[in-house]
Amino acid sequence: MLLTRLANYLKSRPDDGRIHVVRQSAADEDVSVTDQEPVISSAELIEGDALCAINVGGTKQPGFSFFLDGIERRHLLYYDGMMPVVYGFTAAVIRERRDDRRMYTFDSLSREKLYCPCAQVDIEGLQNAAVELSDTLSNSEADKSAAEHPLKLLDLARRAVSKDREKLERILAESWIDKTSDSDRWLLWDGSITVGFDAYRHPRVIGVIKSHQTHYFQGEQQRRIMDLKVGERSSVFMPKGRERTPVYSWYLRLHPNDGRDVYFGLVRIEAAASAETLGIVDEVSRWLLGERSPLSLPDGRWDRMIYPIRDCEQYLKSIAPSRTLIEAALSAL
Predict the structure, then answer these.
(1) Are strands 64-80 and 186-190 parallel, antiparallel or unpaired?
(2) Which of 70, 75, 226, 234 has the highest count of CB atoms within 10 angstroms of its CB?
(3) Number of domains the chain contains
(4) Sign, Cα dihedral of 231, 232, 235, 238
């Protein structure tokens, strides 16, 4: 295990005063959640002349057979001088719902690395200890200034871990496409399908976004989205800024938000930017309404999370190292 090898390496290092172990830190155990700032974007309306609420016509037996989700966990382990060294665990899984309604693992991947500015730490010692590294200063010259501030380096590590999680999800999605090329079954992806270089244009891959950090409309148009009732969807639109990975998207209300936050029960759906998608918007929406039972309790996001995605998250949590395990690996230092 990476943490055990790392602990042995740290024990073997001369005590030069550079290493400050963080035995108890605030581990980031959010599942597939990023720290994106709220932003206003724009969109091109694809369906109709004005954004409006459309009743999808009730519920329908769900047509999804496969479900994809990912997890990322970060933990600040120690400082080498003033350079933060972060442990990152990433994993992704595709779970399959078969005819017996039970869930089975179709495919999964996991990785663990240390994220740090490699030029500023004892990279040779870590490599000799067989510790896989990710250089947080490798991608952009503009980020070189981050070496002057540990908190900037921590933010770069956070972003690097998220990118690695997205990479695992993309690998699984594209593998699923290859393995099911002669099938008519559907994959539901928890998150944006634009992460997948091939998946975003696949006719049977649907993404469901639970967070609403990005608004694509303003004013009266945004109010119409917030006023959607259960079983209503918005008109179809194309988010701007996705020239490389264009998709069609629409909002759907899964649960009533009377007396609750305006975002309660609201999800945004992504699908391939094609005429075929426009013909199945209501049917896919009815499938999602049919996924509301059983509820994904006790998860706090149950109003926007369908149960098979919660099943994926429970599987991923079961293989991820716990905060207790991480702290135990460093407790003797």
Answers:
(1) parallel
(2) 70
(3) 1
(4) negative
